[in-house]
């Protein structure tokens, strides 16, 4: 892949990754959040594919296909099933309102640019210059996890964090060793399965998946 | 060949036992498979301790690696898993009798506890930081269902918080691993071994300090969440309070230490790459915050199992403090403290679980005058709590004294003094509750009448012989190691060399 095209494609993919994260912060419709998560998964797969094509790694391109299947199809489908079974389609009033969330997103972006300066300085390249954006996605996911009250939104936040971390891994060193990547994907898949089962149990015993009801254990 | 078998046994034996439970279910014939597997792990740990005390051994194409530190952690896993698994048949029998568990629940319990032990063994045996991470995250997934075992509102709430907070925390550690991998690749560590502990330690001096600093902070915060250290400790009292007692014993006694083991290894790398100051400052902050949180919340604690859980946060804080001090004496004390805490916490949780099962509640004010009604159980509960409070002759007394001495010798006297004051608060809070539970008048006093004193309660308060033996052995080991660390001496010396960075 030629230099100019590579940088453009890379920036497009990273931009889509970030945009999906910000939009997820904006929307309160759970179905939209799940769709945005699928879009983000596709953007991540595209990012990995671009990096693989640029470096001429066939294995990385194959990994991109795996990521596409897992994060743009399997995980969103699981979330969708949990949502349909849960019968709750909208986020209740989140702890932080939408306008403040978007301001917080801007601040988180500034923070990640400040924090990742050493990473860019160690090896300046188009890929490492995108690391701050990927870290912003991690922080946005964490923000969703902390401020949303629906069980499903929390799971989506956790998964966005994970998308961001995977993006950082590929942008810095075209990925971690294969066995680690495999174990990571398996762990994420299982964690979502566990959370899906717990979501249905929460509904069984609490009658709703609003996590504000989860306040019986305290000191 | 022999080495490979010994290295794989601590993972393979529990996995086989888990398969056995999946195929056959938990019944009279298979109930003793769990303790047998735990005994197998302990035996393999002892062999590895002898084998790996002088030099590290690798196996399975370099995937598994055992040095003295690994062997010591495996000993802790085996030594806590054995009493916990010995207690499991009687625990499940009582749950079945009370109608709280079906045969399917018992089968799931068998499979998951064995998977839990296997993934902890894999975490300490892994030669690579990446595989360690995968194994630690696997423990979260496996134990989530054990925490939510009873399917009550409280259990489901605890399981949800546990999975969400621990997974998010451990995701931070993953980000740290990614950045450390980046720094290692730029320090010309070959790709295949860029996350290998031994390689990372050997190349630590050439890691880029600025990137490594971010990575180390994330790793300590992330694995600290799993170790129950502040600020991400909120899941711990809920999860340890709701899990079945033998699982609580494993989670409190070993799982926290396995996460701390990762911090110990990271600190060795951080000290070389960044100098001793960075990791020390970070650890001092989380250590004092953890002990302070534990002391504050123990003051008004009303639940027996939550009390033990907060005591775990306190001890993890003390371990982080010892790690921050970081001298030879302090690190030897930390390693011995891990073992002593595991044993004492296991005994306390098993006794507390029995009390909870026979009285139907773990509220402290519902437990009155236990000493007269259940002398054996009271003895173990009392002795376990005294051991946790740091009374001699138990291990924790010796190790806490050593940490204090090391702290004053390195000019961290202020931190040690603060921790001591907070520990004193803990001691006052716990002993007041302990006196209330164990001593006092017979339960015909007003207030105690609310006790669901059914016929089974009286027999349930007398622990079965196997449980008594398991708790007795745990307590005896804790006391023996406190009086003389002799059988562990060579292993402890070698492991201290590793965590102080003297040998890789």
Topology:
The complex is a heterodimer of chains A (219) and B (504).
Chain A: H1 3-26, H2 30-55, H3 58-86, H4 98-115, H5 117-122, H6 126-129, H7 131-147, H8 151-173, H9 178-206
Chain B: H1 2-24, H2 33-52, E1 57-59, E2 64-66, H3 68-97, H4 103-125, H5 129-147, H6 153-186, H7 197-202, H8 209-226, H9 235-242, H10 245-274, H11 276-298, H12 304-325, H13 328-359, H14 370-373, H15 375-388, H16 395-409, H17 413-438, H18 455-460, H19 465-483, H20 489-499
Antiparallel strand pairs in B: 1-2
Describe the structure.
The complex is a heterodimer of chains A (219) and B (504). Chain A is mainly alpha-helical. Chain A has one domain (3-213). Helix content of chain A is 80%, strand content 0%. Chain A contains nine helices and no strands. Chain B is mainly α. Chain B has one domain. Chain B has helices at residues 2-24, 33-52, 68-97, 103-125, 129-147, 153-186, 197-202, 209-226, 235-242, 245-274, 276-298, 304-325, 328-359, 370-373, 375-388, 395-409, 413-438, 455-460, 465-483, 489-499; strands at residues 57-59, 64-66. In chain B, strands 1-2 form a two-stranded antiparallel ribbon. In chain B, strand 1 (57-59) and strand 2 (64-66) form a beta hairpin. Chain B starts with a helix and ends in a 5-residue tail after the last helix. The chains are: A mainly alpha (219), B mainly alpha (504). Chains A and B meet through helix 5, helix 7, helix 8 and helix 9 of A and helix 5, helix 6, helix 8 and helix 9 of B.
Order of helices and strands of chain A: HHHHHHHHH
Sketch the topology of chain B as an H/E string, one letter per element. Answer: HHEEHHHHHHHHHHHHHHHHHH
Shape by Cα distribution of chain B: globular
**What's the mean pLDDT score of chain A?**
88
Radius of gyration of chain A: 18 Å
The total of helices of chain A stands at 9
Could you tell me the number of beta strands of chain A? 0
**Beta content of chain B:** under 5%
For the biggest sheet of chain A, the summary is: none
Structural class of chain A: mainly alpha
Organism (chain B): Actinomadura livida
Enzyme class (chain B): oxidoreductase
Transmembrane segments (chain B): 33-52, 64-86, 116-147, 159-184, 214-235, 247-266, 278-300, 307-325, 331-353, 374-391, 411-432, 466-486
InterPro entries (chain B): ComplexI-like_HydComp, NADH_UbQ_OxRdtase, ND/Mrp_TM
């Amino acid at each position: 892949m030629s230099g100019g095209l590579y940088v453009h494609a890379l920036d497009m993919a990273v931009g889509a990754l970030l945009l999906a994260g910000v939009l997820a912060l904006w929307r309160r419709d759970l179905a939209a959040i799940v769709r945005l998560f699928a879009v983000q998964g596709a953007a991540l797969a595209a990012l990995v594919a671009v990096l693989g094509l640029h470096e001429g790694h066939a294995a990385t391109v194959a990994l991109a296909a795996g990521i596409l299947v897992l994060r743009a199809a399997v995980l969103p489908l699981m979330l969708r099933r949990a949502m349909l079974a849960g019968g709750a389609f909208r986020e209740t009033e989140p702890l932080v309102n939408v306008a403040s969330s978007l301001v917080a997103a801007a601040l988180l972006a500034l923070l990640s640019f400040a924090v990742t300066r050493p990473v860019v300085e160690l090896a300046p390249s188009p890929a490492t210059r995108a690391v701050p954006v990927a870290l912003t996605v991690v922080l946005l996911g964490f923000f969703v996890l902390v401020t949303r009250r629906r069980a499903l939104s929390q799971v989506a936040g956790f998964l966005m964090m994970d998308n961001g971390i995977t993006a950082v891994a590929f942008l810095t060193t075209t990925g971690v060793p294969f066995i680690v990547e495999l174990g990571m994907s398996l762990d994420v898949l299982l964690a979502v399965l566990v959370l899906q089962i717990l979501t249905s149990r929460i509904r069984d015993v609490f009658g709703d998946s609003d996590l504000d009801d989860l306040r019986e254990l305290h000191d | 060949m022999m080495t490979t078998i010994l290295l794989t046994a601590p993972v393979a034996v529990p996995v086989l036992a888990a398969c056995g439970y999946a195929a056959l279910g938990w019944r009279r014939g298979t109930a003793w498979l769990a303790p047998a597997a735990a005994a197998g792990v302990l035996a393999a740990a002892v062999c590895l301790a002898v084998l790996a005390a002088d030099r590290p051994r690798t196996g399975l194409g370099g995937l598994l690696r055992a040095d003295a530190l690994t062997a010591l952690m495996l000993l802790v896993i085996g030594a806590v898993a054995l009493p916990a698994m010995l207690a499991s048949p009687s625990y499940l029998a009582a749950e079945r009798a009370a109608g709280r568990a079906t045969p399917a629940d018992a089968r799931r319990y068998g499979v998951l506890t064995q998977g839990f032990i296997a993934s902890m063994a894999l975490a300490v045996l892994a030669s690579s930081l990446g595989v360690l991470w995968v194994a630690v995250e696997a423990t979260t997934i496996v134990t989530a269902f054990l925490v939510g075992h009873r399917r009550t509102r409280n259990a489901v709430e605890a399981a949800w918080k546990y999975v969400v907070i621990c997974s998010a925390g451990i995701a931070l550690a993953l980000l740290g691993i990614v950045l450390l991998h980046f720094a290692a690749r730029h320090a010309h560590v070959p790709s295949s071994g860029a996350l290998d502990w031994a390689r990372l330690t050997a190349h630590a001096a050439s890691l880029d300090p600025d990137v490594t600093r971010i990575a180390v902070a994330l790793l300590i915060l992330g694995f600290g969440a799993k170790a129950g250290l502040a600020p991400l400790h909120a899941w711990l009292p809920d999860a340890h309070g709701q899990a079945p007692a033998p699982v609580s014993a494993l989670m409190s006694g070993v799982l926290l230490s396995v996460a701390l083991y990762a911090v110990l290894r990271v600190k060795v790398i951080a000290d070389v790459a960044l100098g001793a100051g960075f990791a020390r400052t970070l650890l001092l902050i989380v250590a004092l915050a953890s002990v302070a949180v534990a002391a504050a919340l123990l003051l008004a604690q009303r639940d027996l199992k939550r009390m033990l859980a907060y005591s775990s946060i306190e001890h993890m804080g003390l371990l982080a403090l010892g790690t921050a001090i970081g001298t030879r004496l302090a690190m030897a004390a930390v390693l011995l403290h891990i073992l002593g805490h595991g044993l004492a916490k296991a005994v306390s949780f098993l006794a507390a679980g029995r009390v909870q099962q026979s009285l139907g509640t773990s509220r402290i004010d519902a437990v009155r005058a236990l000493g007269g009604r259940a002398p054996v159980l009271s003895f173990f509960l009392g002795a376990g709590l005294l051991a946790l409070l740091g009374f001699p002759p138990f291990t924790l007394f010796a190790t806490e004294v050593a940490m204090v001495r090391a702290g004053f010798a390195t000019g961290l006297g202020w931190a040690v003094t603060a921790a001591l004051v907070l520990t004193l608060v803990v001691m006052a809070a716990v002993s007041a509750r302990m006196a209330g539970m164990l001593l006092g008048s017979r339960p015909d006093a007003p207030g105690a009448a609310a006790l669901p004193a059914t016929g089974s309660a009286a027999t349930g308060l007398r622990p079965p012989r196997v449980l008594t033996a398991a708790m007795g052995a745990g307590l005896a080991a804790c006391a023996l190691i406190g009086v003389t660390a002799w059988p562990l001496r060579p292993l402890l010396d070698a492991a201290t060399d590793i965590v102080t960075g003297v040998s890789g």
